[in-house]
Amino acid sequence: MATIAPISTAPIERLHETWESRPGLYGILATVDHKTIGKRYLVTAVIFLIIGGIEALVMRVQLAHADTHLLSPEAYNQLFSMHGITMMFWYASPILSGFSNYIWPLMLGSRDMAYPRVNALSYWTFLASGIFIYTALCIGQAPNDGWFGYAPVSLQPYNPGLNMDFYALGLIFLTVSTTVGAINFIGTVMKMRAPGMSLNRLPIFVYGTMTASFAAIFALPALTAGCVFLYLERQFHMHFFDAAQGGSPLLWQHLFWILGHPWVYIIVLPAMGMVSEMIPTFCRRPLVGYPYVALSTIATGLIGFGVWVHHMFATGLPAVSMSFFSGASFLITIPSAIAVFAWIATMWLGKPVWKTPLLFAAGFVVLFVIGGVSGVVTAAVPFDWQVTDTYFVVAHIHYVLIGINVFPVIGAFYYWIPKMTGRMMDETLGKWNFWTMFIGFNLGFFPMHIAGLLGMPRRVYTYPASAGWDTVNLITTIGAFLFAIGVLLFVINFFVSRRRGAFAGSNPWDAGTLEWAMESPPPPYNFAVIPIIRSRLPLWEDQLGDETPGMIPGEGHSHISEGAVLAEGRETFGTSPLEAEPLHVLHMPEDSLWPFLLAIAMLATAYGLVFAQWWLAILGALGTLACLVGWLWPRHLATGERA
Amino acid sequence: MTTTAYDRTIPLGAHEGRAPGWWAMVWTIATEAALFAFLLFSFFYLGSQSRSAWPPTGPLALKLSLPNTVILILSSIAYMWGERGIRAGNRARLRAGLAIAFILGLIFIIIQGIEWSNQPFGARDGAFGSLFYTITGFHGAHVVVGLLMNMLVQIWAARGTFTRESHLAVTNAGMYWHFVDIVWLFVFASLYVSPRLG
Amino acid sequence: MIRVSRRRAPLVFALGACGMAGCGPLNTLARDGTTASSETSLGWFLVIVSCTVVLMVTILVLAAWARSRRRQTRDDVVFTGSSGLPWIAWGGVVIPSIVLVAAFLFTIGTLDAVAAPERAPAATIQIIGHQWWWEVRYEGVGPAQGVVTANEIHVPVGEPVRLELSTSDVIHSFWVPELAGKTDLIPGQTNTTWIEARHAGVFGGTCGEYCGAQHAHMQIRVIADPPARFQQWLVDQRAPAGQASAPSTADGLRVFMTSGCANCHSIRGTLAGGAVGPDLTHIASRTTIAAGALPNTEANLMGWIVGAQAIKPGSDMPTIAVPARDLQSLAAYLETLK
């Protein structure tokens, strides 16, 4: 039984001991600390970003001039495929999982995520699946059918090597990581908030990742089904996609895009949420239209399930069907427009302080709108028939992906690295970083709209001089390299700041949300006492008083330095989903090797399946089962509580 | 002077409201349900596009599959009966219910295997064959996982792990089992019954 | 101010380039075809609306920056500020809704306009996609019957032509932008579309769906002829190859038959009946070879026969070792097949 205790008896040393991971190899492999896992996600995802970027730069050298033969068609096709696959699956979602993992418990006032060992598993499977798919590139048999792997090009008769087997199994493996991660976020937001943090007091970043997580658990299985079919058809000569035997290539397209479209919202909604945290801080006022932004996040996630056919407008579908999906694709613009104008209004009605994170946020708004309108262009079915599968769409997707994911991510690094490392990043270098990236990006990708309108198709390893596409391509290549230099500046700034950055303190930006309450970097237990929350911006209550959004008159202010200590082992509160009433004290799991071992077993299974070494696949599968049993075996606790 | 916001003690362990572990199973079931939804979507999509008879060898026999469906439903009922037992503190009833559910589930798998070997088509015989074996195979794999869970829960029950207040593993394994049962009803309705209605 | 012009530069460039979009063989904002013309109207509407929206938002962001310079105060405290809801109501809901509804109605209207031609088609062409070339068959009776060619289509000016699109292997997409948008060629189904050239000319196209290694080299050409010339073309194409009686052509035919060419290619009127590659009965009448990879000249033909894998690696055309004299004879013969 636990009661509320005042901070003067907070046993800091005991909390340290309880929550810290053991040093050495065991600690590295067994830790379940969400902050460590978050940082691992971030570093690994940035590595994949760089690899994917290098793949793109090589492609850009090939495409800078007509009729270049630096790369063979097969090499080019593997490169553009791995570029897309790496960026979409091994960078864009994991980077946001990294930020969410690190920040959420701090922002929510909790000591950990809901399922710490599942958290570790989501990272280890992310890493293992990345190693798996890059094995393909190392043996020269990388996937070569784009990131969307259309049939029949993906099938045995047209693709006899291992390329698409790696694709199918690698993606199934990755979806395990994303799915368990999503379940973790949902459980956390439902049960692990600080007492008093009701739904209307949740940061927009939490809404963003939460919506993305719900979308993930319902959408990812479509890809899983498709990849299972693909593997079975290729390996065991079954028939799902070959028309001659009753299958259909369009079945693949439907399954892929039923995941594919929600997926693009999964990789931007959390980033939009991060921007919704940064803009208010640097504009010195709460976000304009918070409830509308929260609702628009959810609306985008929901409508996102109803637009997938807009990737299939040229396949010869009935006009009625295309009209519906076209309309839905127009409709989904509205929630985004609401968010865009909320951000602009916050800037107008606030007092912006132009630090680096705000530069990235402002740049993001412009790029978001450019990407958004080019999406509206492609929603118009008859004109989509002209621009689909051209560089116009390549321009669109990069404006929305780099604009709405990468720019917020870099801004978020500038914003939250002081919390993670205790040191500020350099502001001057930050401004150079921003402008190089912004100019380079626009120089690289804006001309692609033109190239597309001039008829340049996608996924061509070269093009003829007579087409008249040389100039736009050369400009694009130059811009791409400039953008890459910008990314390099970010990496340099990161390393320079680790040594020479100014010490950050707990709240260098004077921000309002809870993650800025404790020292930087946070102690392993996050909060010495569990806070009690009374508003949406607890740290601004001193300055805003009763005007602080989310306050109920008469309820008083948040308690951050007073609250339950919960120091009998790894403990935190479990709270109710809507009002965050404290329901129980939860005993959180200790460090464990099972997640790591489970990921190894799954990796073995994947290698067994891809190389058709059935003994290895069976061994891996048995290992997987054994690890699950070991993991789930009830632990007996000092307090006598049983699982 | 500190202010305490709560005038009651907060219990250790999640007994009131739904435990995080319970929600983990709920969302796992949700994602698995979506998987089966997409498998069945594929079945109906290819069926709607099919130019030949669907199924090609005529409607699937109900001789084994219908009784098998009943067996699976009974196994869920047995599990529920056992779970009610532990909620009342009755460990013996829990163990009996688990055991009956296990045996019935095992019979289901065996009969399904017999049915597979009796089918006039194989997994490579066109899209229908591939879908039939993939969908029933996926379901069967989920049944096997459910049986393994049941076995673990039986072992833990034998060791006296569960009490009236604390038996989340029983509840979770039970939810999973009922889910697998309900999925079977959808699979049965789609693969065995719906072609007969067209 | 340097910052402003740097931000605006991409837009200025775009508008200038859009003006230039009239040049280029695969222009998507063209009006040479009836369908393309409707699509272009919709396209310009969307491009102009898009540029306007982007301009407005950029101005708003820049103005927010400018305002912040003026409003700079010493203290950095946070404040509540006004609710800002009119921004959301107008900018987020009302104006976008009006614009999007207009765009949607324009879309539906255009879909309807291009759904079917106003008159019955003057011809029906079956186009069968291959990795990486286009098989072309004219359907119907009279001169249209029995016309088999590859990679090049002739159509009558001002008349709609129905296209029946299918594929022998993977998904391809038929795309001649100046005439119409894309329609996919999908295994297991036949997609039907139509094109109509509003004036005479040569219109280039390319495969619009990634179809494997040589997707980049799968061009197609549509040549719009005045109706009389189109009818004559059909008659010429329908005829079998002339008798190879002259010694030079007879020798060329001999080389053709003995070098394995007939395993894949047909020349109607000879014994060559291969069905794997393009029909060569009237190859000399085509303007390009290898699906647009090279202009159709004797020299290029020779280069293609002995070096196909260097020009289009991965294609089904093998590199054929033909001695130099035989090669010249073969190419000369092929160039007589008009």
The string of secondary-structure elements of chain B, in order, is HHHHH
- Overall structural domain count of chain B: 1
Counted by DSSP, the helix tally of chain A is 20
CATH superfamily of chain B: Cytochrome c oxidase, subunit III, four-helix bundle
- Indicate the mean pLDDT of chain A: 94
Strand order of the largest sheet of chain A: 1-2
Distance between the termini of chain B: 76 Å
What is the CATH C-level name of chain B?
Mainly Alpha
Q: Characterize the main sheet of chain B.
A: none
- What shape does the CA trace of chain B take? elongated
Largest interface: A-C, 105 and 99 residues
**Low-pLDDT ranges of chain A:** 1-8, 637-643
- Low-confidence stretches of chain B at least 5 residues in length (pLDDT < 50)? 1-5
Overall helicity of chain A: 55-70%
Output the radius of gyration of chain A: 25 Å
Q: What is the name of the CATH class of the domain at 268-281 and 291-506 in chain A?
A: Mainly Alpha
Give the class of chain B from helix and strand content and strand pairing.
mainly alpha
Helicity of chain B, in percent? Answer: over 70%
Number of strands of chain A: 4
* Average predicted confidence as pLDDT of chain B: 92
Characteristics:
heterotrimer; A: 643 residues; mainly alpha; Cytochrome C Oxidase, Chain A; two-stranded antiparallel sheet; 62% helix; globular; C: 338 residues; alpha+beta; Immunoglobulin-like; five-stranded mixed beta sheet; three-stranded mixed beta sheet; 7 helices
